[in-house]
Amino acid sequence: MGIFGKLFSSDKKAPGSAQTPSEAEAREALDKGLEKTKSSFFDKIRRFVAARDTIDEEVLDELEMALISSDVGIDTTLKIIDRVKARVARDKYLGSDELDRILREEVGALLTENRSGNQVDFSLERPDGAPYVMMVVGVNGVGKTTTIGKLAAQYTRRGYKVVLGAADTFRAAAIDQLAVWAERAGVPMVRQQMGSDPASVAFDAVSSAKAQEADVVIVDTAGRLHNKVNLMAELSKIKRVMQKVVPDAPHEVLLVLDGSTGQNAFEQARQFSAATDITALAVTKLDGTAKGGVVIGISDQLKVPVKYIGVGEGIDDLQPFDRQAFVESFFSR
């Protein structure tokens, strides 16, 4: 079983830690988190579909606009519409329930093709005994530090030893915020003064994690603006320095995106992907927006798997992305 399979299903628990949420509780949180997206989506297509026995070009046009307004993205929307048209022609489609089924199947197929959710992950059983190194990137305000804190808490209560690295040294508030989360999760944090070399902090964090025989080290990085080329170059420096301690680090580069920003999240993802090797995505703040379709579009356009979604403020509201549950929730009335 891979690292994230262990993380969210292992019986190993820290003493006195809270139990992980049940499947039903996780699904309830997902449904609630996607409520605004679902309401907006179905409000737009209900009047066109409900009274029709067949799906014509007018209904498909309305479906296209509903997907685009949910920030699925134009290219991905057109791909979905083309697939739906092919299915309608082949299956002699009749009835709105069948359209629901076709949409679920085709969007689910897209997410599967892009390896989003339910994929095999890395193993904690590292042959050299070195920690699993995760570097987290993203612009200010997307929920990056909060995501790190929630991950640390979730690892810890399942019995894993975690170290945090406060390599966002450009903002004092970032270091202080991460310190709060480190205390909540009961994990050590490696920090230096504001303005210190971020790569130096990353080096110290990975070195400390290795010395402590920690399972995981999560390194925060500056909430850099995606158009600051010199700051993007810092990411490469951080990676090179960490590799002096753990040669194959980082094992994951997690890009955190704010789902409520819609198309701007697309642009941030493209810019970060051009600047460094993004291996996974976390899409946050889906509970406060009608733009939940951005999860589908980003995954399809970048071919980078979505690994986590944020559907609320609680620790367990940062969920490992389950594509089947997401599709069922997104298209449920």
TrEMBL record:
Q: Quote any Pfam family the record assigns.
A: SRP54
Asked if Iron is a keyword of the record, the answer is: no
* Compartments where found: Cell membrane; Cytoplasm
Q: So where does GTP get bound?
A: 138-145, 220-224, 284-287
Write out the GO biological process terms: SRP-dependent cotranslational protein targeting to membrane
Task: Identify the keywords attached in UniProt to this record, alphabetized.
Answer: Cell membrane, Cytoplasm, GTP-binding, Hydrolase, Membrane, Nucleotide-binding, Receptor
Leading EC class: hydrolase
E.C. code: 3.6.5.4
Instruction: Provide the reaction this enzyme catalyses.
Output: GTP + H2O = GDP + phosphate + H(+)
Q: Which PROSITE patterns match?
A: SRP54
Q: Which InterPro entries match?
A: AAA+_ATPase, P-loop_NTPase, Signal_recog_particl_SRP54_hlx, SR_rcpt_FtsY, SRP/SRP_N, SRP54_GTPase_dom, SRP54_N_sf
Q: How does it sit in the membrane?
A: Peripheral membrane protein
Cellular component GO terms held in the UniProt record: cytoplasm; plasma membrane
Output one GO MF annotation: GTP binding
Domain named SRP54-type proteins GTP-binding: which ranges?
305-318
Q: How does it assemble?
A: Part of the signal recognition particle protein translocation system, which is composed of SRP and FtsY.
> What's this protein's function?
Involved in targeting and insertion of nascent membrane proteins into the cytoplasmic membrane. Acts as a receptor for the complex formed by the signal recognition particle (SRP) and the ribosome-nascent chain (RNC).
- Family membership noted in the UniProt record: Belongs to the GTP-binding SRP family. FtsY subfamily.
Q: Which NCBIfam families match?
A: ftsY (TIGR00064)
Name of the molecule in the record = Signal recognition particle receptor FtsY
The record lists the organism as Candidatus Merdimorpha stercoravium
Q: What is the lineage of its organism?
A: Bacteria, Pseudomonadati, Bacteroidota, Flavobacteriia, Flavobacteriales
- In the UniProt record, the gene name given for this protein reads ftsY
